[in-house]
């Protein structure tokens, strides 16, 4: 079974079809969108590094005190 994906109609019909079903590349970002609404990935990376370093220090200190006991 073959599927015909060639566009039908002239340029006007193609423009109307694109406006009705925009792809991810042609979608317009709403005006009320702001960069502050999305947390940057860097903040999550920094938080992960800080939390993992705290966990490692806590484990090392716990092992030192358990070894002394």
Helical content band: 55-70%
Shape: elongated
State the low-pLDDT regions, or none: none
Please state the CA-atom Rg, rounded to the nearest Å.
27 Å
Please state the structural category: mainly alpha
Beta fraction: under 5%
Profile the largest sheet.
none
Q: Kindly state the number of beta strands.
A: 0
Order of helices and strands: HH
What do the pLDDT scores average to?
A: 75
Terminal CA distance? 75 Å
How many helices? The count is: 2
Keywords: Membrane, Transmembrane, Transmembrane helix
Descriptive account of the structure:
The protein is an all-alpha fold. It has helices spanning 11-20, 41-68. It contains 2 helices and no strands. The radius of gyration is 27 Å and the shape is elongated. The termini are far apart. Residues 1-26 are annotated as: Disordered.
Question: Would you summarize the structure shown here?
Answer:
The chain has 2 helices and no strands. With 69 residues, the chain is an all-alpha fold.
Can you give keywords for this protein?
elongated; 0% strand; 69 residues; 2 helices; mainly alpha
Question: What's the SSE blueprint?
Answer:
Elements: H1 11-20, H2 41-68
Keywords: Membrane, Transmembrane, Transmembrane helix
